[in-house]
Amino acid sequence: MEGFDKRHQPRRLYDDRYDLLPDDDSYGAIVVFIHGQPGSKESWAPVVSRLSGSTRRLLVIDRPGWGGNVQDARSIQGNARYVLSLLKEIPKDVPVVLVGHSLGAAIAVVAGTMEPTRIRNVIAISPAFNSDAIVKLDSFIALPYIGMGASKVTLELYKRQMGYSHWGQSSTRSFHLEQSWLLRELRGLDAAATWFEGKLNILYALDDVVVPLRSIVATIKRNPQSRVEVLRRGGHDLLRTRASAVAYFLSKVY
Predict the structure, then answer these.
(1) How far apart are CA 221 and CA 200, in angstroms?
(2) 221 has pLDDT over 90
(3) 186 lies in a domain?
(4) List of residues 6+ apart from 156 with CB closer than 8 A
(5) Which of 247, 224, 253 minimizes the C-alpha distance to 53?
(6) Domain for residue 112, yes or no?
(7) Residue pLDDT, tens place only, 100-151
(8) Which domain holds residue 185?
(9) Nearest to 140 by CA among 173, 180, 106
(10) Which of 15-19, 79-83, 201-205 has the lowest mean pLDDT?
(11) Quick check: 237 pLDDT over 90?
């Protein structure tokens, strides 16, 4: 649990998640953190460590196929169902907030459409949740055979740039599989932001080279009630580059 606020105590320890509560073991809501692709629960450490004094229960998870989660990688729909399955032990009267980064934002919105009465707030950081977010590299990585090699090279470049080593042993396979599902599903998810009945809060950096600005503009058009805040700089991985800004944004909207 290195990097997480020591004022939050673990309720239970798992290989694939951190379940954190305030010291007094009481909480008014549960906030679920869903990492992107690639990523793991450790991706959220710089942000969660800055959420001091929170009265919320924080559930920071490894998605299937990543980090300590040994389950096979899943589609966006499959990931959404997985997230909802983790909430079965939580009383239904406890408010749920989903926080997703990149592809994790798409998973959060889909989960919100599946449980609209329970999930009333989705916070999307550098979100990739519509067809306007697809770029040429996405299509190349999703190709059979050659795409697996491209996935391996891409992950190695990410690791050298970011210094990450916590994505899990099956990260290359998971990355390739999710790219294939991503291309098929994102084109069918353009209306998801419209279907989602709760609050949609978006934080985006103008110098993001992974998710183009047109994707955010398209989301606003489909859901004009979305709250959007824009940063000048930070790139796509705001969890690493602008952790304090992300934590501040969360504290305002969750």
Answers:
(1) 13
(2) no
(3) yes
(4) none
(5) 247
(6) yes
(7) 999 999 999 999 989 988 898 999 999 988 777 665 555 545 556 565 666 6
(8) 8-253
(9) 180
(10) 15-19
(11) yes
Residue 60: closest CA among 239, 248, 244: 239
The rounded Cα 205 to chain-centroid distance in angstroms is 16
- 253: phi then psi, degrees, rounded to nearest 5: -115, -10
Task: Name which of 249, 153, 140 is nearest 205 in CA terms.
Answer: 249
What is the DSSP-derived secondary structure letter of residue 145? T
- The pLDDT assigned to 193 comes to 66
Asked if residue 98 lies in contact with residue 123, where contact means CB atoms within 8 angstroms, the answer is yes
Residue 251 CA to chain centroid, in angstroms?
A: 17
| Contact predicate 173/65, CB 8 Å | yes
pLDDT at res. 176: 78
- What type of residue sits at position 148? M
Q: How far is CA 145 from the centre of its chain?
A: 27
Tokens of 87: 């909430």
Residue 97 within any structural domain of the chain = yes
DSSP code for 43: G
Q: How many residues does the chain have?
A: 254
Instruction: Give the pLDDT of residue 144.
Output: 64
How many structural domains does the chain have?
1
Q: pLDDT at position 173, please?
A: 84
Q: Which residue, among 29, 87, 32, has the nearest Cα to 62 in the 3D structure?
A: 32
Tell me if residue 243 falls in helix, strand or coil.
Answer: helix
Instruction: Please report whether residue 1 resides in a domain.
Output: no
- How many other CB atoms are there within 10 angstroms of residue 249's CB atom? 22
The Cα–Cα gap between 169 and 171 comes to 6
Token pair 């983790």 in the structure block, residue: 86
Shortest CA distance to 190 belongs to which of 158, 215, 154? 215
Residue 34's domain is classified under what CATH number? 3.40.50.1820
